[in-house]
Design brief:
The chain has ten helices and nine strands. By secondary structure, the protein is α+β, with helices and mostly antiparallel strands. Strand 6 (214-216) and strand 7 form a beta hairpin.
């Protein structure tokens, strides 16, 4: 009797697993299961058709990475982080410490890895097929988007300092909260006098919002940006490299979108259920 019950349970479990993990479609010999679709719907809160379309796109993308032998190792990621630190005029150690204070560092590295794979794929499949941005393109973009390149000379801030990081998070949620364990001070900062870490935080935080919490001088710190004064537009030569990257990224994304739309049309997609 026990064997019979066990057999029924086993059979039911197997049947249930078959339904959950059943293959819904095959994209160039790569299966996508019902479970994959269900997970995508739940995680991204999208419709079934959107989930299927997204999974097909993801599968085709991964296949292209493999086909073109696109790989990124830890040294590629480390070198990229070194460049980011240098661009912000910070040491790599200080930059990494700042990132760790603001987000999950492993997730940060994972995002960089994906970005580098994307860049390598674009370079491989779009090489010689894109119009390279020239000075005229960059100057036109600069003139039409000058507000993006405004930088304040003076910052009026409320500075919060505490040994307890949770208290600063509580103040973010409820600015009216007072605590004897949090020092609050009104400070005026000049752009030219800022150290690289504080400059990065102030320039990347919007007016009338709280900055990320960061560690400095054995305390946790946070700013509320009350005002950004005496804004000036950065000179074209200062932002030229960034504008070039923006324009080329737009052109690369457009090319890549058209490339994968064509790839989807020619792909062998077998719908099973």
């Amino acid at each position: 009797m026990k064997k019979y019950i066990f057999s029924l349970v086993f059979a039911f479990t197997f049947l249930e697993a078959g339904l959950v993990n059943g293959i819904a479609l095959i994209v160039n010999d790569t299966p996508i299961t019902l479970y994959d679709i269900d997970q995508k719907i739940q995680v991204e809160n999208i419709s079934k058709q959107q989930a299927v379309d997204t999974l097909i796109d993801d599968t085709l993308y991964k296949q292209e990475l493999k086909k073109n032998n696109i790989m990124v190792d830890i040294f590629d990621v480390d070198n990229y982080i070194d460049r980011l630190a240098a661009q912000n005029k910070m040491s790599t150690l200080d930059f990494k410490a700042l990132v760790r204070q603001q987000q999950n560092y492993d997730l940060f590295r994972s995002q960089i890895e994906k970005q580098l794979k994307h860049q390598k794929l674009i370079k491989k499949i779009a090489s010689g097929k894109l119009i390279i941005a020239n000075d005229e393109d960059m100057k036109r973009y600069y003139e039409n988007n000058k507000a993006q390149y405004n930088i304040a000379d003076t910052f009026e801030v409320m500075a919060y300092v505490s040994k307890n990081k949770k208290l600063l998070n509580d103040i973010k949620k409820n600015p009216m909260l007072n605590s004897k364990d949090v020092q609050v001070q009104q400070i005026t900062f000049k752009q030219s006098e800022l150290n690289p870490q504080v400059k990065y935080i102030l320039n990347s935080t919007k007016k009338k919002t709280f900055s990320a919490i960061f560690a400095q001088n054995k305390n946790y710190n946070m700013f509320f940006i009350a005002e950004k004064k005496d804004e000036k537009t950065m000179d074209f030569t200062e932002v030229k490299d960034g504008i070039f990257q923006l324009i080329m990224k737009t052109r690369e994304d457009t090319y890549l979108k058209e490339y994968f739309e064509t790839l989807k049309i020619t792909a062998d997609i077998l719908i099973l259920r």
